[in-house]
TrEMBL record:
GO cellular component, one term: side of membrane
Ranges where the Fibronectin type-III domain occurs: 604-702, 707-804, 809-905, 907-1000
UniProt keyword annotations, A-Z: Cell adhesion, Cell membrane, Disulfide bond, Glycoprotein, GPI-anchor, Immunoglobulin domain, Lipoprotein, Membrane, Repeat, Signal
Record's protein name: Contactin 3a, tandem duplicate 1
Organism encoding this protein: Pagothenia borchgrevinki
Cellular localization per UniProt: Cell membrane
Primary localization class, coarse: membrane
């Protein structure tokens, strides 16, 4: 009992210190690391320090183990402790190498550090001073042995040839193994003769030693012949490789000729980019080794005499790495502890558990169990307190993780878990009042109502965990309840009140609503409830929460604080289903469901298919779709072909398809056309979506029934009869092999001549025969046929055979210059028609004197015109002209050629020095005379154009003087242009703007500037000065 109270006192102290934020249990802040000590010959200072530091309160003390045995530092020994650090002086390579661990302890337990190894690197001298000569034939392979001296630490090898610093260079013929140190020469040559020395370097101590000379001598008894490769350097059958390390495989062969070395994986996988293959030195290097790099690797040596190979397996291994660690935990007496420890490793790790640095007591297997990293301790007691460590290990390493177990024994305490000050309960419902004091071990819990002990009954029950449960709550159950907890260390209590509230009830009846698509409905949710409680309304559609807002735009809340009504606007078929209104208060929750049926147009019919086809009919069947709660009244069939514009209604038998009709015959179809059909259903609400289209089906072929349209003809060349028609569309050809039968005869003849046109797209047939008189009437008709036979002919039409070209040239061709850019041409017409030809018009050719007739411009007239005006000519230029008549057969002979010279161009100078003044309603204009240049025609007058703005149609006045008086209202703006004209046409113009004048008299002038042509008009705004 005294021990128990001491433990309780200690735990109280621990809790007090923990409350002040002091770290109590020992925790490593520094752990020892492995050391490789380079031991130099003759070195006096041989000291190693292993670091170890831990935090904790009380301050931890330290101990050390070497190879699982405690080190006992004594005065004068080679071992000493400074804090937690272990100092080793005067290192002894036989006694001090091994595995070291630090143990840190305080009153809360002991923890063990990770393992740290100590190795001493050294290298001694070669013992042998002389070696016998190695005698070989030229062409033979040879191995020169190195035989390194006693050492510790990784070595590197090189060879000296004859004397320093002449080193052996490695290539495909010479190889120095970094595993054995030996020098391999695949094929000896005379230049290899000499003395060889092996140089060994310790990569840790950086010291080097040279071996004895090895002479290489050529034998004189002949030259070695060719032989197949013999592999002398190869890797072991199994090479274990640590994760993320670098592995190097060596392979070299002797042979004559010198063998080549190649590498491959037995599984056929390609080498990644990280793999380095040094073909010259026979080394395969794989850095950052991973699981996917493991496998069987093969080295192949080959020459012209043969090949040889060596295989070895690279096996992947990884030291343990913790993936799940136990955490510090505080438990109560008699509770159960379960800690799980997991580590990844290859091979799989084994687990053991330490308590305070020692293996767990194997005498308590019934209470303490460790299985595959899981530690279970049942019926905890104070003796279980301490520091625990999980150790995961495999043959490649060991890893530690720490956790603290506290087992507490305390008197009952409600400070962390007081009873709720108020517990609300619904009248007629159940209520649970929780009582969860902190105490260890578990004690006894009792209840009081008011000052009286509470007695259990069929309604009132104290649960095993101490909580109070009351069923079928009544108003009499309201009051103050007190939970009392006791154990051997004390008593504590906590009280709270129980308030009983009126139950919540939904007054709206559960219902069934039947609505039509597009309507708006209200779903009611009216309630009665305790007025002191707030309500929360939640709506569900088919058990999915309704989120009111933009994504649920059809739904809108319209109830107040005590009603949860919602409105569904423009209801759709997808809104049919079960709607649930849930009402929640702090004491209870109730709900009501309403089933909504939405009636709408039918859904699409199903399984639309064509069961039979004739030349003009199709038998179509289908299955009914959803009627959407309104019986289907009728069906409609639509068809589509490659030639139709979308879907078209078709005629059926029977004509009206009732709601029970699930098949029909579609008639009036076109033969030999591919059809798709679909079906639409209609009920009292409307017509629904169409079914999926049927598979494409083609009607059967038959004799063609449709004749070509617009049969006509005429024209063509001499002795030709041209017959034209409008082709029959493909959908009306009634079958394959469609073509035309063209029939024709001279007017008044009895028999018909016929010709077949096999192209269904043809629209023209030309019959050529020298016996055909020109411009003679013929009767023609065009029939149709396909593979089934011939169809009907079109009505008979009269056309004319080809006419002859005009035989005469027009007479009296005259040309007259109208201006600098225009010429009028006239002629005497020919007779319009005779029995062999017609005149359809005339073709005029004209060309400049520097051009040839074959580049002439052409103007064609239609009908019996006798003149034409040629425009856009150059002034003062000579042009030549000729004229021919034409008809459908071509053009006739050319007339005589005439010429004409256009007049001089009009003056290019625009009027200048324009002056104006106004008086009452008159505008008086004056300007300087325009003088024509030598190559221009003389001015014969001026045109004055005026308008109220640039865009309105101007008025025009002509004058042969340089002044003009206009009667114009002066209260408006005017734009005025003045241009000269001559027999060559109109010249360049000047433009002014006369602004609106406020007074009765004003005057102005255009500024002295360059004239403005009609092409580039710029308004000159004249500032007027009013004369007072």
């Amino acid at each position: 009992m005294e021990l128990l109270w001491k433990l309780l006192l200690l735990l109280s102290l621990v809790e007090c210190m923990a409350g002040n934020g002091v770290l109590l249990r020992p925790v490593f802040t520094k752990q020892p690391g492995s050391v490789v000590f380079p031991l130099q010959p003759g070195e006096n200072r041989r000291e190693v320090v292993f670091s170890c530091e831990a935090q904790g309160h009380p301050t931890p003390f330290y101990r050390w183990k070497l190879n699982d045995s405690f080190i006992m530092p004594r005065l004068g020994s080679r071992y000493s402790l400074m804090g937690g650090n272990l100092h080793i002086s005067q290192l002894n390579k036989e006694e001090d190498i091994g595995i070291y661990q630090c143990l840190a302890s305080n009153t809360f337990g002991t923890i063990v550090s990770r393992e740290a190894s100590l190795h001493i690197a050294y290298m001694e001298n070669f013992k042998t001073q002389r070696r016998s000569p190695v005698r070989v034939r030229e062409g033979q392979g040879v191995v020169l042995l190195c035989g390194p001296p006693p050492h510790s630490g990784e070595l590197a090898f090189t060879w000296i040839f004859n004397e320093y610093p002449s080193f052996v260079l490695q290539d495909t013929r010479r190889f120095v193994s970094q595993k054995t140190g030996n020098l391999y020469i695949a094929k000896v040559e005379p230049s290899d003769v000499g003395n060889y020395t092996c140089v060994v370097t310790n990569t840790v101590t950086k010291s080097s030693v040279q071996g004895p000379l090895t002479p290489l001598v050529l034998r004189v008894d002949g030259v070695m012949g060719e032989y197949e490769p013999k592999i002398e350097v190869q890797f072991p059958e199994v090479v274990p490789v640590a994760k993320s390390s670098t592995v190097k495989l060596e392979c070299f062969a002797l042979g004559n000729p010198v063998p080549t070395i190649s590498w491959r994986r037995q599984d056929g996988a390609s080498f990644g980019r990280k793999v380095d293959i040094n073909k010259a030195s026979g080394v395969l290097e794989i850095p950052y080794f991973q699981l996917e790099d493991a496998g069987i690797y093969e080295c192949v040596a080959e020459n012209t005499r043969g090949r040889n190979s060596a295989k070895g397996k690279l096996s992947f291994y990884a030291a343990p790495h913790l993936t799940e660690k136990p955490q510090d935990v505080q438990k109560t007496i008699d509770d159960m502890l379960v800690w799980e420890c997991k580590a990844s490793a290859k091979p799989k790790p084994s687990y053991c558990w330490l308590k305070n640095g020692e293996p767990l007591d194997s005498m308590e297997h019934d209470r303490v169990q460790a299985n595959n990293g899981v530690l279970t301790i049942s019926s905890l007691n104070l003796a279980d307190i301490g520091m625990y460590q999980c150790v995961a290990e495999n043959k490649h390493g060991r890893i530690f993780t720490n956790a603290e177990l506290r087992v507490v024994a305390i008197a009952p305490d409600f400070s962390q878990n007081l009873l709720k000050a108020q517990t609300l309960a619904r009248q007629g419902g159940d209520v649970l009042v929780e009582c969860r004091p902190r105490m260890s071990p578990r004690g006894v819990i009792s209840w009081r109502k008011g000052k009286e002990a509470l007695r259990e009954s069929h309604r009132v029950t104290v649960l095993d965990n101490g909580s109070l449960r009351i069923s079928n709550v009544t108003k009499m159950d309201a009051g103050i309840y007190t939970c009392v907890a006791r154990n051997q260390f004390g008593v504590a209590s906590s009280a709270g009140s129980l308030l009983v509230k009126e139950p919540t009830a939904i007054t709206s009846p559960a219902g069934h609503l039947d609505v039509t698509v597009g309507e708006s409905i209200v779903l009611p949710c009216q309630v009665s409830h305790d007025p002191t409680l707030d309500l929360k309304f939640t709506w569900f559609f088919n058990e999915q929460l309704i989120h009111f807002g933009s994504h649920w735009a059809f739904f809108e809340k319209i109830g107040g604080r005590s009603a949860g009504d919602i409105m569904i606007r423009n209801i759709q078929l997808r809104h049919a289903g079960k709607y649930t209104c849930a009402v929640q208060t702090k004491v209870d929750s109730v709900s009501i469901a309403t089933d909504v049926v939405v009636r709408g147009p039918p859904g699409p019919p199903v399984d639309c298919q064509v069961t039979a086809m004739t030349e003009t009919t199709a038998s179509v069947s289908w299955g009914p779709g959803m009627d959407n709660h309104s019986p289907i009244l009728s069906y409609t069939i639509q068809a589509r072909t490659p030639f139709s514009l979308g879907w078209q209604a078709v005629t059926t038998v029977p004509e009206l398809l009732g709601g029970k009709q699930l098949s029909s015959t579609v008639n009036e179809l076109s033969p030999w056309v591919e059809y798709e059909f679909r079906v639409l259903a209609t009920n009292s609400i409307g017509t629904g979506e169409p079914s999926k289209p049927s598979k494409k089906s083609r009607t059967k072929e038959m004799l063609p029934r449709v004749t070509p349209g617009r049969v006509n003809g005429g024209g063509g060349g001499r002795s030709e009869l041209v017959i034209t028609w409008e082709p029959v569309p493909e959908e009306l050809q009634s079958g394959p092999g469609f073509g035309y039968v063209v029939a024709f005869r001279p007017q008044g003849a009895q028999g018909w001549m016929q010709a077949a046109v096999t192209s269904p797209d043809a629209s023209r047939y030309v019959f050529k025969n020298d016996s055909i008189p020109p411009f003679s009437p013929y009767q023609v008709k065009v029939g149709v046929y396909n593979n089934k036979g011939e169809g009907p002919f079109s009505p008979v039409t009269t056309i004319y055979s080809a006419e002859e070209e005009p035989s005469r040239a027009p007479g009296r061709l005259r040309a007259r210059s109208v201006s600098a850019s225009e010429v009028e041409v006239t002629w005497k017409p020919l007779a319009w028609s005779n029995n062999r030809r017609r005149i359809l018009g005339y073709e005029l050719q004209y060309w400049g004197e520097r051009q040839k007739q074959d580049t002439a411009s052409v103007i064609r007239t239609v009908g019996n015109k006798t003149s034409v005006l040629i425009r856009e000519l150059e002034g003062s230029s000579t042009y030549y002209m000729s004229l021919r008549a034409y008809n459908s057969a071509g053009v006739g002979p050319q007339s005589i050629i005439v010429n004409v010279t256009t007049k001089k161009p009009p003056p290019s100078q625009a009027p200048v020095k324009i002056m104006w003044n106004t008086s009452n309603s008159k505008v008086i204009l004056r300007w300087d005379q325009v003088h024509a240049l030598e190559n221009e025609s003389e001015v014969t007058g001026y045109k004055v154009m005026y308008s109220q703005d640039k865009h309105s149609h101007p008025s025009v006045v002509e004058t042969n003087t340089t002044s003009l008086e206009l009667s114009l209202p002066v209260n408006q703006d005017y734009v005025i242009q003045i241009k000269p004209f001559s027999e060559g046409g109109e010249g360049s113009s000047s433009q002014i703007t006369i602004p609106k004048i406020a007074g009765s008299i004003a005057k102005g002038a255009a500024p002295e500037s360059s004239p403005y042509s009609l092409v580039n008009l710029a308004a000159l705004i004249i500032t007027a000065r009013t004369v007072l």
